[in-house]
Amino acid sequence: MRAPWLLTFVLVHLALTTRPVHAHDAKRFALNWVRGPGAEACISSHRLAQQLQQTFGPVLVTADEAELAIEGQVDVAKGDGSEGAPTWHARVAVSDRQGRLLGVRELSVRNATCSALDPQVLLVIAMTIDPEVALESLPPELLAELGAPDDAAAALLAELRTEHAAQRPPVQAPPVEHHRAPLEPEPAAPRGSDEPSAPGLGFGMFAHGAFTTGLLPEARPGLALGLELRVAPRWALRAVGLWSATSTRAIESPFLRSASVRFDASLVSLAACASPLVTRALRASACLGAALLLRASEARGLERAPDSSAQTLAPQLEGVLEYTALPPFALTLAAGLHAPLQRVSFSYSLAGASARQPLYESSPVAVSALIGAGLAL
Questions:
Q1: Which of 12, 66, 103, 230 is deepest in the core (most CB within 10 A)?
Q2: How many CB atoms neighbour CB 261 within 10 A?
């Protein structure tokens, strides 16, 4: 009848002397412990989980988050309760996320109370979580107590030690600790961070609503289409075509009736982009390139029309923010600064007049803002 205080000694000593299992070097387990009919007096799932958490730290999680599942059941043998002490049976199994069975341990003890089986259950599950802690942290007095020849827990401890010694690699200088449980698979590869893992090519197509100022006499809305080719996780080529809504400027003269000039503008740009900030959902890029600014005019009510078109090359700097909430669909926000190498002037002249009248001169800097959505593949 040593089992109740023996189990308490094991649990308390492990809780006070063992080191916590840190999140970066330990697996996470889901515990499913069931007591069969007649075994209600055996250790409960709540108490077992509580003692393991106190000993090893937060290694027990839900089934969805666990890397390994520890499933156990304890039953009392049928018919053993009528004469003599009953026999208690426990089965502990470990499986991975794919449901593959990695190991099974069958335990049994004949005793008046089920608590005699608790030390064996604790030892098996502790060895699964961290064999070094389970074996090396037991005090000498407890080892002497477990050395009794009639103790089932002592026999199990000796068996677990033999298995662990057989699996442990030879010690070399300098000594290295090996945390390897008998029922565990090979350590899983470290989980990826938010850093993108695939360095291959990527392709994006976007449609934007646009707002421009400096391209036409007034700030105007517009439409833009963009293509992006990612050649590395942090490098891309970006091409954009933008069309601005028409701007009309009236000509006031006592010699004219309702004369006006309509202006249209568009730009085509190509830039190289670097992305200093890249996560699974967010990409922030700075782009440097050049844009070709195209402007055209159409006169109404004038006998001598102004210049009809002009093209200007402009270096550009653009910032792009791309948010991918539901891949491959992405939201994009961009702002561009364009500095034409040459300013463009439009003028007109009246019939019979030799001098031309200024109508519109382009701004030294044009600004575009884009917001839209597309596919990031």
A1: 230
A2: 22
Whichever domain contains 217, its CATH number is 2.40.160.20
User: Residue 184: which of 140, 124, 244 has the closest Cα?
Assistant: 124
- Helix boundaries (H) for the chain: 3-17, 45-56, 118-129, 131-136, 140-146, 152-167
Beta-strand ranges (E) seen in the chain are: 29-35, 68-76, 87-96, 101-110, 202-213, 220-232, 235-251, 259-278, 282-300, 309-326, 329-338, 345-348, 357-361, 366-376
CATH number at residue 94: 3.40.50
CA-CA distance, 50 to 62, in Å (whole number)?
14
- As given in the structure block, the two tokens for residue 174 are 């300098």
pLDDT band at 53 (very low <50, low <70, confident <90, very high): confident
d(CA 179, CA 26): 9
The pLDDT value given to residue 138: 52
> Cα separations (Å) of 185 from 169, 182, 189, 348?
16, 8, 12, 83
**Residue 186, in any domain of the structure:** no
Question: How many domains does the chain fold into?
Answer: 2
Share of the chain above pLDDT 70, in %: 68
Alpha-carbon distance of 352 to 356, in angstroms, equals 11
Nearest residue to 90 (alpha-carbon basis) of 56, 125, 66, 61? 125
Place of tokens 């057989």: 166
Distance between CA 86 and CA 3 in Å, rounded? Answer: 15
Report d(CA 97, CA 61) in Å as an integer. 13
Percentage above 90 pLDDT, the chain? 27
Domain encompassing residue 307: 202-253+260-344+360-376
For residues 289 and 149, membership in a common domain is answered with no
Q: At which of 167, 188, 221 does a domain end?
A: 167
d(CA 94, CA 49): 16
pTM of the model: 0.47
